[in-house]
Design a protein that fits this description.
heterodimer; A: mainly alpha; 8 helices; 0% strand; B: mainly alpha; Rna Polymerase Sigma Factor, Chain: A; Butyryl-CoA Dehydrogenase, subunit A, domain 3
Chain lengths: 214, 185
């Protein structure tokens, strides 16, 4: 009986709704906004003077590519998870983790290469805090945009969605920071570029459970 | 469920997204049976399956803009239904764990007509009488006839956990209704 009444109420309230665009379409919009934010941020922070030469270093280029992949995969995952029952929701969750794992492996490889070449691999605390600030500054606005895009869907898994949003925004920040930071020491990159992304993910889980409760 | 039937459900939802109330009503009425069967298959208890169905229908209403008519309907539906089922299980475990101690304290203070205050007793009796039938039966047996949870479960053909959950809900309603009359509660 109560169910019948509920159905009558819901039918009465049923106005036309604007369908949510497909995740691929929403992802393209977000990436467009993110690239604009990144360019504006890099204009403000400046790119490293030896960027062209650095990009010819395979390990540097690999790390930049993997960070970019983590950003795109995490954003795609966050948007896919807001569509109930989406066929790709399992890979949407695990691919960004794979990208982060590859980034970590490339850092380990970088560490070995630096050590073998007698270059400083262990510690370069110089401007670590500045890198963290840059990651946060570069990722903040695209992160807020992605959060609202996710909230417009139906994020059935708030914790996962929050994690993916946080990984996307922090990876974007880390990518920008890699293009501006002059330190290539793998320990520096691990502590001040990689770990903030992982920590942001943890914070994202908590915030997602709280703010994206559905 | 045949592919044609699933396509029909998806088509109704597509029309509902465009504001077709008739299609939406047909869809929701059809979903009640589907959701009931799904919940029972997933181990939901018969006595709280109606609550889960209603919560799922509300969620479907909120999420209807996320359905893509080009995609199969059932995975979308069951993802939402599973989410609400999981919430129901979590809620049930929370209630079980707490064992509703505060409810029983409240019940001792409020429901038993031993206050010596006729007006208050009448208010309590009236509030109990206005509860939904199942909640009223459970609370009357527990508090007025002083039966144990096990005895009530046996008498009403319910599980012990269902008796606790029903009593918890009834006490919650009573607490809201009698707020102000029962000090501090």
């Amino acid at each position: 009986m109560e169910t019948d009444r509920l159905i009558e109420d819901l039918v009465r309230q049923a106005q036309p709704v604007k369908r949510l665009a497909r995740p691929s379409m929403r992802l393209m919009r977000w990436v467009g906004a993110a690239v604009l934010c990144l360019m504006a941020g890099l204009t403000a922070f400046g790119v490293r003077p030896d960027l062209t030469a650095s990009l010819s270093d395979p390990l540097y280029a690999l790390q930049a590519l993997v960070t970019l992949s983590a950003m795109v995969l995490a954003a795609a995952g966050a948007l896919i998870l807001t569509v109930p029952g989406h066929a790709r929701s399992a890979s949407a969750r695990w691919l960004p983790i794979a990208a982060l794992a590859v980034w970590l492996l490339s850092l380990a490889l970088d560490f070995a290469v630096h050590s073998a070449a007698g270059q400083p691999a262990l510690w370069d605390p110089g401007h670590g805090a500045r890198c963290v600030r840059e990651i946060a500054a570069l990722g903040l606005l695209p992160g807020v945009i992605l959060f609202f895009m996710a909230a417009r869907g139906a994020p059935l898994r708030g914790g996962w969605t929050g994690w993916l949003v946080a990984i996307a925004l922090a990876s974007l920040g880390a990518l920008g920071t890699q293009l501006s930071c002059t330190s290539d020491a793998p320990a520096h990159v691990f502590v001040w570029h990689f770990l903030p992304v992982v920590l942001a993910g943890g914070l994202g889980v908590a915030l997602g459970r709280w703010l994206l409760r559905w | 469920m045949t592919p044609e039937r699933e396509r029909q459900l998806g088509e109704w939802m597509g029309r509902a997204q465009d504001g077709d109330q008739q299609a939406y009503e047909s869809l929701l009425r059809e979903l009640v049976g589907l959701l009931r069967a799904h919940a029972l298959r997933r181990g939901a208890r018969a006595d709280w399956v109606d609550d889960v169905i209603q919560e799922t229908l509300l969620s479907i209403h909120r999420a209807r803009h996320t359905y893509d008519p080009q995609r199969p309907f059932l995975p979308w539906l069951y993802a939402i239904a599973d989410r609400r089922l999981n919430d129901a299980y979590r809620r049930l475990h929370r209630v079980m764990r707490r064992e509703s101690e505060e409810d029983f304290e409240f019940a001792d203070a409020a429901v038993l007509p031993q206050t010596g205050d006729d007006e208050l007793t009448e208010e309590v009796r009236q509030a109990v009488a206005e509860l939904p039938e199942r909640q009223r039966e459970v609370i009357e047996l527990l508090k007025l006839q002083e039966m144990s949870v096990k005895q009530v479960a046996s008498r009403l053909g319910m599980s012990e956990s269902a008796v606790k959950v029903t009593a918890h809900r009834g006490y919650k309603k009573l607490r809201e209704r009698l707020r102000g009359l029962i000090g501090g509660n």
